[in-house]
Amino acid sequence: MTLFDRLKAASADDWTAYVEHDFVRQLGEGTLPVPAFRTYLVQDYLFLIHFARAYALGIFKGRHLADMRSALASVNAILGEMDLHVGFCAEWGISEAELERTPEERANTAYTRFVIDAGLRGDLLDLHVALAPCVIGYAEIARRLAATAKGADPANPYARWIAEYSGEAYAAVAEAAIAKLDSLGDELLTEKRFTAVSDLFAQASRLEADFWQMGLDAAG
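Request: output the structure for the sequence above.
Response:
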């Protein structure tokens, strides 16, 4: 069992509420209101900026050169993804100027600052546990949706999002994150510490669910 599997099992209710949220269900069925998805896209842009900052903490917190290089690669990957995200938003009628001028929603601020705080106060294990629900969870969600008829239907307006996160490239990102958790766990985790680490994971999962709910609330 991977550390990620152990964390999911210890936070089963919170994890299920996140990965099976109504936002996710409607995304897979193609029934998600467009305003909900557009709100999500804009806030996700702001979210990615803070996630790049969170991964940058991995350079500072790195105990080994390999850790620092890994964190730098993640920062570069996220910053590179920003251009793709801007292009995807443009397809939904959202300009880069709109992305830049839109304020953060409270759910976004709560989640991103939680992750950054976890990294500032803790070590690399704390940081990567706080990041895991997003990084790994998206792959799990999209893979499940892609296996459904409606999720894979090209007529689903959200099929591209599902395909992106269920594809081989993102699967490799998620697998690397799982492996990184195991590596850090082998080095830094004790059974006594597991409760505190699993609490971090559970809170991050709840904040992910709140992020989905933010989109639904915007649609009324």
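The two ends are 41 Å apart (CA to CA).
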